[in-house]
């Protein structure tokens, strides 16, 4: 679980971390040492010639453009709600994860805000077409709900299956055998998930969706990255009609596009074009070349 949050932090920080480097000018001292001093001018010249310095400036420009155009669409409450979700999910280890990634609470919230702004920009600049919906519908599967008994050994899972086949109660066996502290006292019941869920192991999802009727369970242990699971189907709604799932399909498409570099490059390009960016330092004229032509950012 911690790996997923760490990956998210690094991805957002890499794209949107804002540091005060670009824009420094003058002869003020940044650091002193026996051999002399380092001025803001020297520091700025060094930073603007480095890839990390150019990335920082690019990030600052994009972040300011997003804030200017969509700031009113993201509230402090939304940011706090997202922050609290992560804090609650990772509990006592959350602060440690932030520290390991060199981030404070304020920085993490800033990254969350920028991520939310980016989601707004995507929805404002890319429309879901009927063709998109039909394509997404082909692979769509409604959310299902299952219960699981998670154990560390295959032999233990096989023992549980044998007991189920002999008529023993799944809920009681979950309480007795499962190592999943979040579900064992709930009869193994998990939150509903769909085939695109990133919080559920792929092999687990595959096995769960193969079950047909409520009450069916896997007759062989399901190996996942967490151990061995015995899965029982609680509910599996029929797919129904596409028109009944339009909102959900759109959400899935936007979530997918957020991870698509080609789509997001196009969105950011539109945001920057609207921002009418003008790069005043000729050494940095191509800092946005990945998004706009150098002539449009030169001015």
Automatic annotation (TrEMBL):
Its EC number is 5.2.1.8. Gene3D superfamilies: 3.10.50.40, Porin chaperone SurA, peptide-binding domain (1.10.4030.10). Residues 141-235 form the PpiC domain. Residues 1-22 form the signal peptide. It is found in: Cell membrane. It is an enzyme of class 5 (isomerase). GO terms for cellular component: plasma membrane. InterPro entries: Foldase_PrsA, PPIase_dom_sf, PPIase_PpiC, PrsA_foldase, Trigger_fact/SurA_dom_sf. NCBIfam families: PRK04405.1 (NF003356). Plays a major role in protein secretion by helping the post-translocational extracellular folding of several secreted proteins. Belongs to the PrsA family. PANTHER family: FOLDASE PROTEIN PRSA (PTHR47245:SF1), PEPTIDYLPROLYL ISOMERASE (PTHR47245). This is Foldase protein PrsA.
